[in-house]
Amino acid sequence: MAVKFDRRSFLKVVGGASLGALVGGGGKAQGYPPPPMTHQHPQAQQVLQRALAAHPQGYTFFNSAEAAFMEAVVARLIPSDALGPGGLEAGCAYFIDQQLNSMYGHGGRWYMQGPWEPGQPEQGYQLPLKPREIYRLGIAATNRYCARTYSRTFDRLSAQQKDTVLKGLEEGSVELGDLPARTFFNMMLSDTMKGYFADPAYGGNRGKVGWRLVGFPGVAAAYVGFIEQWGKPYEVDPVSIPDLLGGQAQVDEHGHPIHRPVARR
Amino acid sequence: MATELKPADVVLVGVGWTGGILAKELAQAGLKVVGLERGEPRDTNPDFQPPRIHDELRYAVYHELMQDLSRETISFRNNLQQRALPMRQQGSFLLGEGVGGSGVHWNGVTWRFLPWDFRALSATLERYGRGILPEDATVQDWGVTYEELEPYYDRFEYTCGIGGKAGNLKGQVQPGGNPFEGPRSREYPNPPMKVTRAMELFRRATAGLGFHPFVQPSANMTRPYTNPDGVQLNPCVYCGFCERFGCEVAAKSSPQVTVLPVAAKTGNFELRTHCNVVRVNLSPDKKRAVSVTYVDLRTGLEYVQPAELICLTSYVFNNVKLMLLSGIGQPYDPVKNEGVVGRNYAYQGFTNAGVFFDDKIMNSFMGAGALGMSIDDFNGDNFDHSSLGFIGGANIAVYQTGARPILSRPVPPGTPRWGPQWKQATARYYNRFFNIGAQGGVLSYRGHYLDLDPTYKDAYGLPLLRLTFDWGPNEIKASQYLAGVLRRIVEALKPSKSNVSPLPERYGIVTYQSTHNTGGAVMGADPKTSAVNRYLQSWDVPNVFVVGASAFPQNAGYNPTGTVGALAYWAADAIKNRYLKNPGPLVS
Ligand SMILES: Cc1cc2nc3c(=O)[nH]c(=O)nc-3n(C[C@H](O)[C@H](O)[C@H](O)COP(=O)(O)OP(=O)(O)OC[C@H]3O[C@@H](n4cnc5c(N)ncnc54)[C@H](O)[C@@H]3O)c2cc1C
User: Fold this and answer.
1) Between chains, do B427 and A213 touch, taking CB under 8 Å as contact?
2) What homologous superfamily does CATH list for B3-579?
3) Among B39, B523, B34, which residue's Cα sits nearest to residue B292?
């Protein structure tokens, strides 16, 4: 019961810019039955669109001091520069805030039973702390360190001072008492990267700036006709899950987005 | 009190690839089969539909489709002197959970092991003598040969619709395939995958060095395919969300799109999800399994499911754990060097090379789980080891599985991990990079094994399985040699920047390497050194079959599932054609 492959929609997938090349390289008819598009119910779409437009973004885990700290951190880890917006503009601090209220923040799928021992590095994470506890302790301890050393909290330091503190955490030379500084730093770094590159549905990667930086198209199209075009740039406007759920991006009959080419810079 | 249920002919513990294959084969043979799976039901539609399935954070980073470690994990140490600690987060390998097991989110890289692999010990003694092996290596023959398994490899490949090019048809070497492979009786059911720029660069570089590149055989469909059971699979669209994801278009062969629907159609297969098996119950003389006990995770209540035949199909770790918890076979003791259950755990060791190009884009975000170009010149005994001091080797390959940017952001060595320089390097090289991986086989050793942890417990109050493992001297030597081969390939590729990383001194459980764990319930000809016979039947409790990579006596330099699938079909045939006629030990 394979559905005949529709060459026209296949070509749409990679956009007009590549039509010529594709006709040569598109390959033989290939077909598969389109899956039902559950998210395309017209009313559901309107509701979603309204919800997305009005999406309120307020910190629900971090208190104001913690939020100020995290905003300052993500702005240094991924700076805003000539290449584009950084971690702050991408909403990485908000993303982390939301994550800490979720399964991840509670270590929900980690094995968290004692007895507790530091163990060897090869044995991996062995602290009884959940990510949200690490942030809470780590931010307070780092701010105490900054107060001792510079007489102000982290967010009030100069850019250079901030980088010095972050390097100290990264190398473990800044002491945070019971909490290993590197554990705290590595968690902030990895969560900031998640926030910069994850689907914007999670509150980070605003404007898809992370994806734009590297040229990642987001939710994938069918690349079957393009993948053998060696060296040919695939420059498209990235598409997110909310773009598709909210009807801001078109889909082909199989549910894959139709990527729109961006104007060549 | 546990509720006792109506008896079944067969109980399968775990419904992934091995459970799925046995479900189909045994239900088609007319047996009443109950499949107990601890995880959730899930299928192409609606569970794997875009756009939600293209969510790197949920599926690739938070392992949505995999084992919930808050319920159950393993503990780990490098050696007997250390204290094992629990694996608190998924890392080195990603354990499966839910209908289809890891077969849902696997890549689909599908190999046959070499004829050499099945007689690794005899062949090594014949060619090099015992001296080439480390003193404490416990390498052994499988008790089954490549020739015996060939028809079963064929069954698995045709069920899955593997796309590839034969390298050896009935003894005739074929152009375009892997010239080192064992003879196959017929061509692959489907043509090979498409070739990306990275694959082509690797092909040219390795061919230029006199090696023999070929497109990696793949379970991602290369055209619409109807398998011998009448199941339809659709062509892969190369979306790049494959490894760690379920396939939205049913283009990746997985249990839930191939064998399970066929099993269900017989009317003889009952799949029960959310059922965590905690024990196999034996008769008082311990010679017969009478039932399994499981916890229904929706109610917390315990049930006893009696059956004539019980197959453990719960992946390497839980196959061994359930044997140990139930008293099936003698537990292995590495100090006394006695017993078999838990013995000969092995894994795979990767030697990697990263290549960065200033002038070439790869479109790395396009891809498929098993899209790759390989050479097999340095695997098994395909090259002379006389002066090398190790045996075995690796397949060396470039894969383009889809570079998603949370986890795949390569930067050249020496780049800071954050800040402006990191950002520049990331923007520059995200799409101008590929990795060359040498997937090294691993020997078994006296001190590498599985047993029950004395301290840590799972959510059911049962001990965690404890893993004791490290890289052995054979693997370290092999890795250094393979790093040399990778350097030659890197040189031929002329990248702007590169780095080659041999195995670290110690095995660590933190960074993902592969879910290619093996051993612990190994097959063989001698009950003193194997837990199951050549048909994967327990030597001690003959109505228990233990199916999976747990049966590998040591690990080859290939992904395991081709061989796991072949062994599952081989065991199914032994059950149908031999065991049912005369229930009892198939090998005395
Ligand atoms: C990310 C990833 C990529 C991979 N890619 C490849 C590849 O490209 N090529 C290749 O050859 N291999 C690959 N593999 C390995 C492949 O997935 C496995 O070899 C294969 O799935 C093993 O089949 P199995 O039946 O032994 O185990 P599984 O498929 O894991 O199934 C075991 C099932 O048993 C269930 N279970 C466990 N314990 C219990 C219990 N106590 N009670 C009830 N149910 C239980 C589990 O929930 C699970 O569903 C990959 C694995 C992963 C994780």
Assistant:
1) yes
2) FAD/NAD(P)-binding domain (3.50.50.60)
3) B34
